[in-house]
Design a protein that fits this description.
- With about 250 residues, this protein is α/β, with parallel strands linked by helices.
- The protein has one domain (about 30-235): 3-Layer(aba) Sandwich (Rossmann fold), CATH 3.40.50.
- Helices cover about 25% and strands about 20% of the residues.
- The chain has helices spanning about 10-15, 70-80, 95-105, 120-130, 170-180, 200-205, 220-225, and strands at about 35-45, 50-55, 85-90, 110-115, 135-140, 155-160, 185-195, 210-215, 230-235.
- The strands form two sheets. The protein has a seven-stranded mixed sheet. A two-stranded antiparallel sheet has the order 1-2.
- Strand 4 (about 110-115), helix 4 (about 120-130) and strand 5 form a beta-alpha-beta unit.
- The longest helix is centred in the first third of the chain and has 13 residues, at about 70-80.
- The radius of gyration is 17 Å and the shape is globular.
- The protein starts with 9 loop residues before the first helix and ends in a 16-residue tail after the last strand.
- The structure holds S-adenosylmethionine.
- This is S-adenosyl-L-methionine-dependent methyltransferase.
- Keywords: Methyltransferase, Transferase.
Length: about 250
């Protein structure tokens, strides 16, 4: 498939901007097939732009290509900087783009996680960016126990992880597990692209345990036009009932 070097994600932007809200479909429209390609994604950063080499391959699953909310979250991290010394955990990393940018911003350690079929492409992308020293890839299936020996993260990242309805309660469970030890609460940055009305069900589950706020971001007006929201999730005090209804990004 031809790739526009200036905008390698353009195929995704045009393919999945169909906000058809087809509630009969379990998953949204998928990007066209991409097999064993290499792209370079460059994100502007405080000092110098950060270029990430990315092996992309849809064979192991939809996460094998870079998704729009991942690009938005990567660009946000690069713009704000300030990850030096942090332990970062990314959920549903796919290619690992977001976590790799976090590592290039000086995070002490980044654990990029996904389901087993994605581990190979994540390892490849760690290797081709020379980030073996401070990035590791691990299997983390939402809803299952967190990996043994996981260091309590300072920052949890998730991009484009709301798309498959049966996984909604599993993802909420994992977010709860990662924020289960107050007062040491990680910052949770959750970048979401609205595709279907059914996404509301994810936020209905989420609001039992979290409130959220829009993250201040210079590009917000741009990605809002693509139905993308960048949220900071805040764990409700444990066992407290959800008394107020936060604004849903799906509304
Ligand atoms: C749409 S992709 C987004 C990938 C990447 N975050 C990005 O923005 O490019 C969603 C990712 O979530 C992962 N995923 C889906 N269900 C999962 C589950 N139950 N446990 C862990 N990861 C899951 C997929 O394998 C995939 O990599």
């Amino acid at each position: 498939m031809p790739t526009d070097a200036a905008d390698p994600l353009s195929h995704l932007r045009t393919a999945d901007d169909d906000d058809s809200d087809d509630d009969d479909a379990i998953i949204p429209a998928q990007p066209p097939s991409v097999i064993d390609q290499r792209i370079v994604l460059t994100v502007p950063a405080v000092d110098a732009p950060i270029a990430i080499q990315l092996a992309v391959d849809a064979t192991p699953g939809c996460g094998g290509v870079a998704w729009p909310a991942g690009e938005v979250l990567a660009r946000h991290l690069a713009r704000r900087g300030a990850l030096a010394g942090k332990n970062v955990l990314e959920l549903g990393s796919g290619t690992g783009l977001v976590g790799l940018v976090a590592a290039r911003l000086g995070a002490a350690h980044v654990c990029i996680t996904d389901q087993a079929p994605l581990l190979q492409i994540m390892q490849t992308n760690i290797g081709i960016n020379g980030l073996e020293a401070n990035v590791s890839a691990a299997e983390l299936n939402w809803g299952e126990a967190l990996p043994n020996g996981l260091v309590q993260p300072d920052v949890v990242l998730a991009a484009d992880c709301v798309y498959f309805e049966p996984a909604f309660p599993l993802l909420v469970q994992t977010l709860c597990d990662l924020t289960a030890h107050p007062p040491a609460q990680p910052e949770v940055l959750f970048c979401y692209k609205k595709r279907r009305k059914a996404d509301k069900r994810f936020f209905a589950l989420l609001k039992k345990h979290f409130t959220w706020t829009d993250v201040d971001d210079a590009e917000r007006a741009v990605y809002t036009r693509e139905s993308i929201s960048l949220l900071a999730l805040h764990r409700r005090p444990h066992h407290a009932p959800a008394s107020s209804t936060p604004t849903s990004p799906t509304e």
